[in-house]
Description:
Blueprint: E1 2-6, H1 9-18, E2 25-29, H2 34-47, E3 54-64, E4 74-82, E5 87-89, E6 92-94, E7 104-106, H3 110-122, E8 126-133, H4 141-151, E9 155-157, H5 160-169, E10 174-184, H6 194-208
Parallel strand pairs: 1-2, 1-3, 3-10, 4-8, 8-9
Antiparallel strand pairs: 3-9, 4-7, 4-10, 5-6
Amino acid sequence: MLLVVTATDLEMAPISHRLANTPGWIPLVTGIGCLESAVALTRFLAETTHPLTGIVNAGVAGAFIGAGPGVLDLCLADQETQADVGIWTPSGIMAFDTIQVPTHFPLVGPLLERAKNTLQRLGVKFWTGPFVSVLAASGTLARGEALRQQYHALCENMEGAAVARVAQAYQLPCLELRAISNMVEDRDLSRWQIASAMERLAEVLPHLLPNLAPADHE
């Protein structure tokens, strides 16, 4: 059984519609941001009686200009980073110099490989690379460029690192799939395509989820 996690009901609605006849998954809407995501997911995993084989974190994201992806492109994370933990300096956010805080969470593994193979087989264009999670969404091109350069990331979101961290604690494989709703630039909501990005995400999940189950020999 796969747990499909989104931050909002708006993201889950088209997914639930498209997956209405697809067995083997259950939904969880966590709320927006790392705190709500961590609390809701941890509570669910502590209380559930479902035998879970993995977590699929799905949603929309903002892509960094120059990183590659464009609006409505699909992106798979091979690493998540909580980008705004540390010390704010004129050169950007730096790691703490007196204490170690885990902020980088790898997402490589069988789920990612199965997802990549499935999308390739379907002829669906996608990007794979690092994502960053932020506490406050970037509203300027300058901040987006700083994050892209520092972390070599494809896109930013607000929940991925929290979901990856909780999945790690529960020793559950985690896949993060996002559709790009906007570019990270000086904020201009008229250019965003949130509804279309959510539909793009929902379109591919009915083809993807049945191929994420572990092979018999694993």
